[in-house]
Amino acid sequence: MKIQGKMFIWLSVFVLAMAIVYGWWSKEPAGTTALFLAFGLCIMIGYYLAFTARRVDASAQDNTEADVADEAGEVGFFSPHSWQPLSLAVGGALAFMGVVFGWWLLYFSAPLLLIGLWGWVFEYYRGENQNQ
């Protein structure tokens, strides 16, 4: 995680330099604002990763002598089959299209988003996946 933190911090320095150059050269406020916001996001992520890396054990990617197999093993638990992300994706797409085509699309997207979110949060509290 130390490597990712350093990468994002250096990326934020680069984006800040580009935001200053772009703002000075183009005098265009929208792109300049977007670049300064990208700088803010990069510095937040870099600080979080660098801050967290001090509290967790060193992983294989932090060791220059490590092999690829050193990081092998179980990564985590992932749902084997879940339809909830599809509902969230369709609801999110409809919600964003509602901004473009008309706010009336939110009447169709809000139930899909709520059903998908509710189903995803409580997926392992009901049905065949219920923990005993």
From TrEMBL:
EC class: translocase
Subunit relationships: Associates with subunits I, II and III to form cytochrome c oxidase.
Pfam family membership, one: Cyt_c_ox_IV
Functional summary from the UniProt entry: Part of cytochrome c oxidase, its function is unknown.
An MF annotation (GO) of this entry: cytochrome-c oxidase activity
The keyword DNA-binding belongs to this UniProt entry's keyword annotation: no
Membrane-traversing stretches: 7-25, 31-51, 88-121
Compartment(s): Cell membrane
Keywords from the named record: Cell membrane, Membrane, Translocase, Transmembrane, Transmembrane helix
Reactions catalysed according to its record: 4 Fe(II)-[cytochrome c] + O2 + 8 H(+)(in) = 4 Fe(III)-[cytochrome c] + 2 H2O + 4 H(+)(out)
Any one GO BP annotation for this protein: electron transport chain
Keyword Manganese applies: no
GO CC field: plasma membrane
Species whose genome carries this gene: Streptomyces alboflavus
This enzyme's EC code(s): 7.1.1.9
Protein name, UniProt field: Cytochrome c oxidase polypeptide 4
